[in-house]
Amino acid sequence: MYPEKLIPQQISARKLTSALVTTLAFLPSVALAQTTVVTPNTDMEEILVEGQVSVNPALSSAIPKNSSTLPAADGGDFLRNLPGVDGSRMGGHGIDPIIRGQARTQLNIINNGVFTYNGCPNRMDPPSSYSDIQTTDLVIVQRGYQSVQYGPGGTGGTVIFEHQAPTFEEGRTVKAAASAGYESNGDIFSLSGDGSAKVGAGYVRATGHFKDANNYEDGNGKEVRSAFKQYGGGLEAGLKDDDTEASLGVSYEKIEDALFAGAGMDSPSSENISLRGNFDQELDGTGPVKAIHFNAFWSDVDHVMDNFSLRERMMMFREADTSTTSYGGKLMADLEAGDTKFNVGVDLQNRNMDGLRIGNDMNPEMLNFVQSVLIPDVDLNQIGLFIEGTTPLSEKATLKAGLRYDHVSASHNAADEVTTMGMLRSPNALYQKYYGVTAEDKDEDNISGLLRLEYSLSASSTAYIGMSRSVRTADITERSIASDMGNVPMMNMSWVGNPNLAPEKHYQIDAGYGLRQNGWSMLLSAYYDEVEDYIFRDHARGQDGILVSDGALIYRNIDARLWGIEAEGSLKLMDKLALAADAAYTNGQNEDLDIPLPQIPPFSGKVSLTWEEQDWELGGRLRWAVTQTRVDDNAMTGSGRDVQETPGWAVFDLYGRYDLSKGITVRAGVSNLFDKAYANHLNRANSNDGTEIQVNEPGRSFYVRLQAAF
């Protein structure tokens, strides 16, 4: 289903050779995961390939279980370990990933073939927070718009969390793995289990996990509201042979009592249940169709947040219960015509989001008033057609081209529903007040596409240059949120979506270069993105198209620009000593106001040094970021979404691994060794502690994790 990758399992020499043809041989040795590459030959039928393999300078893949760094709180937290990925924190859970200055639905997040969307409009639960990161086999990150195959949008990149079909050694029909871990800062305890059994020509696989975290302390010794509990698991059954793979699966995730220092509410409950089905068939005929792929999914998220059940409050009690349901699928065929290989397909995504905020000013036991029709039962449906192919232009040059068409329809089914508390207004009344429109049914026809030229400069180096047009439709929150907080001039805390937003159009140019020599490697990429109709969350100041000047949060289209550079490298200093580093810089500009775009990460990166023996390793990692001075922190002139000019920081981690015996490994280390007090620039404002500006990252934490495979 995902052609540009190598998967961490046993595969035939024939399939491995085919996979290597589609990749660049750039294999940076990093502390996150180890890489083993075996050259196929006719004497070996099965070859084990595991670890992190970079297909091109804008793609990363990693195996979470092989990470020796601090265990991740969730999928978004794990992604911050990968080159070019950052994230926003407002508590201990729900780290919201950002790639190349883009976030939310500018990224496509695919969890085991399922498009799951947040239930919380404020993104306490981004899609990555529902990934079972403790048992995920493979994480793939495409930075930028690299393919038309992964659904609409994805202008900033695509993230894939994937479980693989299990493989079994000869003579074995059952295998299992388990892990247990502890982190000192926050008194965090985690467990996971993963078991598979071979049943005839098929298999069954069951996974489960549990994590219980208390509040952590920052580097100043201050307690940060960050506690949470998460548990869940999945069950999958499938068939797999050389030509056919089919599976059905169900997953469940529950997050309880999640505290957020960066929000005025906490979340007593968030849960997700998802169903998925996949079918892949390779064809041996002489016709042009070489394989067909089909997947279908259904996902339901129910999110509850309130301002009283997990914190002290004397009055103005509020609770919001929002839900998001998504379903869809994809049908794709692999075809060949001469030397040209291409994919053609159709995909479907339907989403519904609905939710009310209820309240009572004096009694939390009687929340019987509708304070806001927060999300007025909105449907957002998309159907897409795509074709993408590669053809050799010469022995060294390959051209990749893709074209995508998406039809989008949106409808607000409860926009006239009136609140029973406060101003007694409907969402349509709010839309009319700020934009002079009501929520009519809306249709869009969006065209995206890309061209990419790859050139092999030598046996050990390759370069590429590409251009693309990608389109992202406004998401449901941007279109429809109707959080009504009153009529206080220039201090209005209302948050009002815009049903008349135009879709974002991204015109991108990106280029990259990769070089691998004996003992060292280098990956470089750069991009430029001119954005027409960038969807900008602003404050109402009577701008063009905004009828009110009261400071409420509103959405409008602007022109914007993004550009940046990314670099990775590795160097083998000695036979068993390796140095690895990565760095990324993004620049974002609001061209309408001639000010920086908000929530753009500063120049940042990592450097690691690892000594590795066969049964143990020891390493250190420096994580750093410079001061971010390009900010939009003034709500009177811009969005005010940046909290401050965040100071630069550098923290040091130690990590290690020891194999006690075959199949049993201990991983341990200390994160933020010198107990540095710091905040990531993207972190939310700390609304819980008036002495702290932003939600700080955790201080020093010792951790240990025991892993066993049977």
Automatic annotation (TrEMBL):
GO cellular component terms, semicolon-separated: cell outer membrane
Domain spans labelled TonB-dependent receptor-like beta-barrel: 224-673
Molecular function via GO: siderophore uptake transmembrane transporter activity
GO-annotated biological processes: siderophore transmembrane transport
Membrane topology type: Multi-pass membrane protein
Originating species: Emcibacter nanhaiensis
Domain of life: Bacteria
Family in the record: Belongs to the TonB-dependent receptor family.
Matches recorded under PROSITE patterns: TONB_DEPENDENT_REC_3
Name of the protein this chain belongs to: TonB-dependent copper receptor
Keyword vocabulary terms for this entry: Cell outer membrane, Membrane, Receptor, Signal, TonB box, Transmembrane, Transmembrane beta strand, Transport
Occurrences of domain TonB-dependent receptor plug (ranges): 70-158
Family annotation (NCBIfam families): TonB-copper
Range of residues in the leader sequence: 1-33
